[in-house]
Amino acid sequence: MITLAREVPARRCDLTAIQEMPLKSSSGTVVVDRPVRWDHPLDPAMASHELQWMLRLPPFSSMNPESFSSNCSLLDILRNDCKIHQFRAGDIVVREGAYGHSAYLILDGTVRAFLEPLWRIKHDDRSTGSDSFLSMLTSRWRRSDNADDRRSSRRSEPANQSPKNPQIPAPLQMVKSDSSGNRVFLQDINAVVDGYESDALGVGEIFGEMAAITRTPHRYTVVADSECLVMEIRWQGLRLLRRDRQFRDQLDQQYRETSLKTNLREIELFRFLSDESLDKIAAVTRLESFGEMEWFADYRINRQRDLQERIESEPLIVSEGDSADDLILIRNGFARVSYEIGNGHQTMSYLGRGRFFGLDEVSQNYRRPWEAPLPYQSSLRALGYVDILRIPKDVLIEYVLPNVRKSELPPLIESPRYDTGGLVVSEAGKPLIDNHELVSLVEFLVDERLINGKRTMMIDLDRCTGCDDCVKACAATHGGTPRFVRNGPQIGPLMFAHACMHCEDPVCMIGCPTGAIGRDSESGVVSINANTCIGCKTCSESCPYENIVMIQRTDSRGRLAFDRQTQLPILQASKCDLCHGIGAGPACQNACPHAALVRLDTSNVVSLTPWLGVKG
Question: Can you tell me the distance from the alpha carbon of 28 to that of 34, in angstroms, rounded to the nearest whole number?
Fold first, then answer.
């Protein structure tokens, strides 16, 4: 086996390895170098000749250097946020259902993206972060017991030389695919995947970018189809690379060519369509975005304003009374469904990823062609940042609705709020949720953005005695510092504490320059790596819910850390991590003697109805 001795850059600050210098003023303090951006590159052993080789590859070779700042150049991004992997045929690169942290660029060889699941996993199994996924597949899969037996040299020549693929430099040492040094791979790829529909991806193609950018689970599994070189680009670097307009346009075009049809195929309404019909729908589907990705900044300002003013300020996707020309599919984010009442707006519901808007009107107009077409009966507004697919009604009427059973279509609108001229015919309106208390709950959840929470801490104040056992248990589990505050927004007897909700869209991760705050790929738990947190406060200031606090850093002996240069305290971010890895579950919930504290998925309003004593 041929390997290359790689250049290892001088190590920067590592709090576990620095020389400690106590302050004269106190033996309970320690002076250290303040951690900075890129102290922990994705590949610490990245060699200079590898960087120069990557700069000659598309898409980097065509990028405009002026798209990047002087202290964050393209070379800096490649050096710190990229890593080259070599995979053998059968190696699993990304897995459907796992949360995405990186995009992947194929440098040589091919991979295969499977358009349907290779397995079925119960949600509870995946959310626990256990090894249940692997144990299910032991008959088909195996792990490498030794990282070295799966390690080989990177090739000096590509297996499939292509004019668009520059010569790969002298053998590059293969990098392990995960922190444990283990790989998951298919023993017999042909036997396992036989009968599954898939697409081959080759040199220059990127995959996994949508999951990385939107912090959502991967929609498909990608397996190495042959021996291949793949560059991993972690999401921090991907966000920076998108500053280059040409690269950003390439990603959008690639999504249309490779992923749009796959996303449409996953829609239950389209499951009976032929490939030809899907192609025609995909050709006319429009991709649109509303709001700002860093929506938390405006939200903090706007939450001080009147509710009706806030609703008016939300980006309008569809206005009630407009002609129902499209079916809207929420691709990422959340949107508010509301209607005008008097001088204000009444929230009817909210829609998340994979939900439709406009199907009621489009299907009714299709089923009652003898009547003048109904316009949209409500408005759709972006809550933060929303990606949508806009599918024209004409292709739905031609290819989709004739193939759908009537029982699967929404009920007819017998008392429309708007007539065919877009005029209000009924001031009362009809909410999607009939129970008045539940309507109020929906309004509250949307207004407080609690719809973003997947593990929201809720306390029933009718049961809570204020004993503080939950806070004490949290402090005892986390070195004496509790990671939540038993206070927060309240509706009726329900109080939603200031504790990390492990959001469906964790905006706290957007600006983190080091990737210190990240999401576990299996459980979805959002946690902070204390070793790589540089105390920049970005996540704390980004969290719309004030659930991340800054505390002073300590060393392994409990001494408070101060910056060697400025003598100022060194801070680090702290938040609830659901006691991830402890095994017994959240200590706060286990310690509550009255079962007053629970963790709920508040993105699903139905999960709260038992606590209100109402029916959804």
Answer: 18
Q: Which phi and psi angles does 126 have, rounded to 5°?
A: -70, -35
Residue 511 has which token pair? 């600006």
> Please, are residues 302 and 313 in contact by the beta-carbon 8 Å criterion?
yes
In tens, the pLDDT along 535-578 reads 888 888 888 888 999 988 887 777 888 888 888 888 899 999 99
Nearest CA among 336, 406, 409, 420 for reference residue 378:
336
- Kindly report the number of other CB atoms within 10 A of residue 330's CB atom: 22
Residue-range domains of the chain with CATH? 41-242 (2.60.120.10), 268-432 (2.60.120.10), 439-612 (3.30.70.20)
Tens digit of each residue's pLDDT (9 = 90 or more) over 466-478: 999 999 999 998 8
Contact 485, 576 (CB under 8 A): no
What stretches of 409-567 show up as alpha helix (H) in DSSP?
436-447, 469-477, 538-542
Distance, first Cα to last Cα, the chain: 64
CA 300, CA 542: separation in Å to the nearest integer? 9
Cα 298 to chain centroid distance, Å, stands at 20
Give me the pLDDT at residue 178, please: 43
Q: pTM of the prediction?
A: 0.66
Helices 74-81/48-55 angle, 10° precision: 120
